Amino acid sequence: MTDINRRTLLAGAAATGALAATAKISAQDVFAPAPDLSGKSILITGCSTGFGRLSAEHFARGGARVFATMRNTPRAEAEELIQLADDEGLDLHVIEIDVMSDELVATGVAEAERINGCPIDVLINNAGISYGGPIEIQDMEATRHTFDTNVFGPQRLIRAVLPGMRKAKSGLIINVSSQLGRVIAPSYGMYSPSKFALEALSEGLAYELVPHGVDVTIIEPGGYPTMIWSNANKNSLALLARSEGTHTDGYPALVARLGQRTGGGSTDPMDVPRAMAEVIAMPAGTRPLRRPVHPGPKPQTPINELTARVQVEWLGASPFGPWVKAVHGA
Fold first, then answer.
1. Cis peptide before 74 (omega within 30 of 0)
2. Can you tell me the distance from the alpha carbon of 109 to that of 35, in angstroms, rounded to the nearest whole number?
3. Fewer CB within 10 Å of terminal CB in the chain, N or C?
4. What is the C-alpha to C-alpha distance for residues 84 and 327, in angstroms, rounded to an integer?
């Protein structure tokens, strides 16, 4: 239990300073100049639109070798990225991965590692979906779809990359969660439950990977104007079309708003790639477990601070204590 690597050595003053700096950035939403990511290999899921697409371009322009993955290739979005890489001379490769497919995850990660010639440095689990509506109307099709994408998908990718990362004694896994992975708003279906599960998965994984030199960071965006809203509306309307009055009749006001959800306003979705780039560029062992990202309120911040303190107080003196303290910089 006490076989702690260099991360323990960094978990004192260096980690405290790094986490304090991150908290300041999070509060003010001021981003440093784009860091040099040369020499980093980064695999990202869900790159057809939104945070994934923006991140693939941002990291590749920062010098990284990027594996931009998406499902259902060939498709126009994949061709656009391939053309962009050719036009700008970027080290960017498009690979088909459907996070709900064991086979495509295994073959996609293997292809990325083959091209890279060694294990991947950074995995970003970005792909995600949402349905709207009350919990009661979420049938098992919607429930399985949500959890298979938002929880089981990241787990498939994590299992695929970790043998290589552990062998290299280095690596970073970034899981894109949400404010709604720590706070709850009604009528978001299984979205919050799935993101709560992803948060727990990520934190447990972070502790277990301390001896292996692999970091885990959870990105917690607030609302941004990406395709998740329109995609969620389509999912919600399809759910409503197959729902029975037995379940929908109890929620007329909430059901009436299905398919009409928008969000994000004028916020800049590039906040998320910029925040992830800063985390990637940080020294190993100093990266924060959680990184809220949004120019407005971050209601999860006090929850994050409280749970970190509780974890250290609860397990700090146990055999797991060195792992928990290393993750929380205690």
1. yes
2. 25
3. N
4. 38
92 vs 85: CA distance, rounded Å: 6
Q: What is the pLDDT of residue 32?
A: 76
Query: Per DSSP, what are the bridge partners of residue 290?
Result: 218
pLDDT of residue 261: 82
Look up tokens 């702690």; give the residue: 4
* DSSP letters spanning 34-73: PPP-TT-EEEES--SSHHHHHHHHHHHHTT-EEEEEESS-
How far apart are alpha carbons 273 and 246 in whole angstroms?
43
Give the chain's length: 330
Q: Does domain 32-306 have CATH number 2.30.40.10?
A: no
pLDDT in tens, 57-77: 999 999 999 999 999 999 999
Query: CA–CA separation, 28 vs 80, rounded Å?
Result: 34
Residues with a known catalytic role:
191
Interval 268-317: pLDDT, tens:
999 999 999 999 999 999 999 999 999 999 999 999 999 999 999 999 99
pTM of the model: 0.90
Low-confidence residues of the chain: pLDDT under 50: 1-28
SS3 222: coil
Question: Between the CA atoms of 151, 156, 160 and 163, what dihedral angle is there, to the nearest 10 degrees?
Answer: 60
Q: What DSSP character marks residue 35?
A: P
Place of tokens 């379940």: 247
In order of 132, 141, 150, 244, the CA distances from 250 in angstroms are: 15, 20, 28, 11
